[in-house]
Amino acid sequence: MKIVKIYFIIMVAVWLPWGIQCIFNISNITEIIGVSALNPNGATDIRVMYGGVQTGLGLMALIAFFKPSLGKYTLFSLAMLGSCMALTRSYGVVVDGSTSLFNLSVLAFESFTGISSGFLLTRDKLK
Fold first, then answer.
1. pLDDT tens digits, residue range 20-44?
2. Can you give the pTM of this predicted structure?
3. What are the residues whose beta carbons fall under 8 Å from the beta carbon of 27, sequence distance 6 or more?
4. I want to staple 61 with a disulfide (CB 3.0 to 4.6 A). Which of 8, 34, 110, 126 is the partner?
5. What would the pLDDT profile of 93-103 be if each residue is shown by its tens digit?
6. Count of other CB atoms within 10 angstroms of residue 98
């Protein structure tokens, strides 16, 4: 169980700050990924899909750190979301040819999140 707590700390440290900054400063993410909001609806969607999702992942890990009984649910969520993001990004890299350092780095972390969460979920006997 100790390794799961360390794992949750890593997830909080990566997902939560990135998500929060994407909520309050969308220009950071829009410049990195090369998109722009054409109207206020677009800006809100960028905040939600980048900031909201990443903040949610970080908060789930933070809550599970303090409430271990939620650990298996958090690992399952991280495994599903990380894997789905990695698979979708992989598809985009192939179809769109988007092999930027950003995309490949995020793909690596999303893959790590999906695989490692799944591994920890099956490895540890969680409450």
1. 999 999 998 899 888 999 999 999 9
2. 0.89
3. none
4. 8
5. 999 999 999 99
6. 15
